[in-house]
Amino acid sequence: MKHRPRVVAIGLVLYLAVCFAGAQEAQSPAQIAEKIEKILQEHHLERAFFGAKVVSLANDQILYAHNPSSFFMPASNMKLVTAVAAAEILGFDYRFQTVLATNGRIANGCLEGDLIVVGSGDPTIGARLGSPSLEEMENGDASCVFRGWAEELKGRGITRIIGNLVGDTSVFSGPEHGEGWAWDDFPWGFAARISGLQFNENLALLRIAPRSGEAATPMLNLMPPGALQLVNLLSYAGEQESPEVEVTVLHPGVLELRGKVRGNRSSLYSLSVPSPPDYFLGTLKQVLVDSGVSVDGAVRVMAAGEPTPQPLETLLVYDSPELRYVLKVLLKVSQNLYAETLLKTLSPLKKQKSFEDGREQVEQVLGAIGVPEDGFVVSDGSGVSRYNLVTPETLVTLLRHVYRQPYAADFLDCLPIGGVDGTLRDRLVLSPAAGKTRAKTGTLTYVRCLSGYVTTRDGETLAYSLMLNHVAPQLMRRPETVLDEIVGLLAGMKR
After folding, report:
1. Which of 37, 78, 160, 304 has its CA 20 to 30 A from that of 406?
2. pLDDT higher than threshold 50 for residue 51
3. How many CB atoms sit inside 10 A of residue 297's CB?
4. How much is the pTM?
5. Based on C-alpha coordinates, what's the Rg of the chain?
6. Predicted confidence band at 286 (pLDDT cuts at 50, 70, 90)?
7. What is the DSSP string of 95-139?
8. Strand pairing of 49-56 and 62-66?
9. DSSP string, 260-310
10. Angle between helices 78-89 and 336-345 (to 10 degrees)
């Protein structure tokens, strides 16, 4: 998606106050705690639930703690747990492999048999990989990988496939959504289904733009076209109205859009597709045909439990980018599908990998780095589920462990940088923490979290976890400002 123009989310006066507070030397943990408590009091969080832990990585000294062993819904801070488990179990050089094979033979330019695509759950095939920036999708080339496959097949002498285009998704089993996901999130791209064959993150991008004429409905531009059928019941918001779009699934692949949008600017949304394997295979077939490889047969997804035809001849093997790229998208963009895909991938089984087996692997990693069994509840890999529970202490233990591993530099490179990129691009811009903190955001309704690393004014590196739950909108319009002020204070201090 396109970068939004930088917006200073917090008023200049507030940030000047933060900078002034951060410029004062905090000589002791007691002084640091006093200043943090003052920030909390100023924001009137009496009815919310706040927890935090801040530790110096130079000597493990605890600089601040508030409800450090209490459970909080972590939102996307859960991605830190999933990412570390993937780094520990898979390694940063890990690549997903997609295999194109056949049960037929090649003769006179024809593949006399089916073209079978054996998926591994690769989440990267699509527009983001074909984009100038991993944080953008709209300007990306979604079909770049598929066109490469077409050229390889032609290089094998194949210009016509007489059989079907068949998808093998048996690498994964069980639910397509994480445990505890809300049903009304399912139409949106951030709650896309997980599959063994995944294209364009199992979503389509929707650009809603104003159209001239008083009675004209907003204009819809779906990318790629035809991915979904849309019923447009949108109208324009008045000057005093807040824009809001509601999506209802009328039938699989048919969505109704209601609500109001701005009449003076366009907006970009993402919508999930009903059947990721069909989306993958249908797009692949079209790209093959457009590239000069005709397909006589139909698109077909193998049924659960259906044996793969044998013997198979491998035609090509496609390797995804390394885990380094996957984790950058996962953490900087906060991409939920990548997290859930990794959770299933962590299963030790070669096929029929499941969320349940992946959760067991995550729990083992947490135990191995010193997190007690009562320090977490793992329900999904992304943090979309409200069943996840984590303590600030758990996240700081995790961050401290990572900082001392050989892969620490790779991992830190995947985290959003305050005021610079990812989900922190438009936050901390005028704060002492701008460019000085690498951290994972976490956002759900009534939940804001921020956990990562910050470098102080005198070069000390701290690991921190700040978790805020049960903060209602009438209590505070932008609850993340509390967390940003605290990180700004930490960045500005000198001990």
Report:
1. 78
2. yes
3. 15
4. 0.93
5. 24
6. very high
7. --EEEEEESSEEETTEEES-EEEE------TTTTTTSSSTT--TT
8. antiparallel
9. EE-SSS-EEEEEE-S-HHHHHHHHHHHHHHHTT-EE-S-EEEPPTTPPPPS
10. 40
